[in-house]
Amino acid sequence: MAFSADVKGELCRSHISRRCCAQAEAYGILLFCGAFHSRQARIVTECGALKERLPLLFRKAFKVSFDQTPEPGEGKGTFLIEAPEKLRTIFDAFDLDQNASVSLHINLALLEEDHCRTAFLRGAFLAGGSVTDPVKGYHLELSTSHYHVGRELPALFREAGFEPKETGRKGNRVVYFKHSDHIEDFLTWLGAPVSAMAVMTAKLERDLQGRVNRQVNCDSANLDKTVAAARAQLAAIECLRESGRLDALPDELQEAARLRIENPELNLSQLAALCDPAVSKSALNHRMRKLLELAGSAGQTAARELGAQRG
User: Fold this and answer.
1) Helix, strand or coil, per DSSP, at residue 207
2) Residues 239, 299: contact at Cβ < 8 Å?
3) CA of residue 262 relative to chain centroid, distance
4) Can you give the pLDDT at residue 298?
5) Is 161 buried (19+), middle (13-18) or exposed (0-12) by CB count in 10 A?
6) CATH numbers and ranges of domains, the chain
């Protein structure tokens, strides 16, 4: 979760300028936090930056303070509001009926402005979001226990120009991205361009490593082919020498045989450059094929002679 913490830390550095955006961000946090109902608002987080931001945010948004805050240095901490008058102030800000026992929805009328929509999704991510370290993979999600909120969230994303996927998990609604470019765009839009750049950099490094691996594999395959071809050529040359036919070959074939014996590790292009005069790779390849053919016929002749002697 270290990368998620870094992202949330960057988002928490966003300046709280407008009260409407402070309310929108707090709205997103409350709908994606531990609990939010007529008797209690409870936000549980282990993000140090969010712990510092929440009191300032709620004072800006509602002019209220928390009834309970985490102890300094505490790992996972709880922010709690239970005072009825404070809860009434919060419910009134979102035009919610505090006494109605109905499921929570996203009041889209409060999020018509782009800056408020961004603030809401920033709050939702701060409370209920996570993102995988891009070195390990690409996955960003927001999760809420409120069914209708989870079903309405994709529409809010689409209004902002994003197309997330959605699913259910252990009773929660989850909205998520799996592509690096979507995650980059979303983090930039939320106000975390440094984190978005980290995703982009990880993707470039992964792509580069993939290309290097493919090139290494290709080079290794080519090397294997070169070694196999050189062995076959050396075996053919040895066969011709044992049969006494090597010294009777044309000069260009004898030269090809000599160069291969002296340089068993070189490929055809490198051997061709050593010819006097230098020849093309194709020309040398033709000479090597001729040596292989002659060795094959020499082997067949030797086999017939041995068979005749045994007969």
Assistant:
1) helix
2) yes
3) 49
4) 59
5) exposed
6) 2-191 (3.10.28.10), 228-306 (no CATH)
Task: Share the mean pLDDT of the chain.
Answer: 86
pTM: 0.68
| Mean pLDDT within 23-37 | 89
- Of residues 75 and 308, more confidence is placed in 75
pLDDT value, residue 103: 65
What are the φ and ψ backbone dihedral angles of 170, each rounded to 5 degrees? 55, 45
Q: Are strands 140-144 and 129-131 parallel, antiparallel or unpaired?
A: antiparallel
| Dist CA 134 CA 202 (whole Å) | 6
- Dihedral over Cα of 290, 293, 298, 299: its sign: positive
| CA proximity to 238, closest of 299, 283, 304 | 299
| Ranges 30-34, 42-46, 287-291: which has the least confidence | 30-34
The pairing of strands 129-131 and 77-81 is: unpaired
pLDDT of res. 61 = 92
Single-letter amino acid, residue 138:
Y
**Tokens 């082997």 -> residue:** 299
Contact between residue 234 and residue 264 where contact means Cβ atoms under 8 Å apart: yes
Within the chain, residue ranges assigned H as helices are: 2-11, 19-31, 48-62, 84-93, 114-128, 147-159, 180-190, 193-242, 251-262, 268-274, 281-310
Looking at residue 105, its pLDDT comes to 83
Mean pLDDT calculated for residue range 236-240: 89
- Given a contact cutoff of 8 angstroms between Cβ atoms, the answer to whether 257 and 198 are in contact is no
211: Cβ contacts below 8 Å, ≥ 6 apart? none
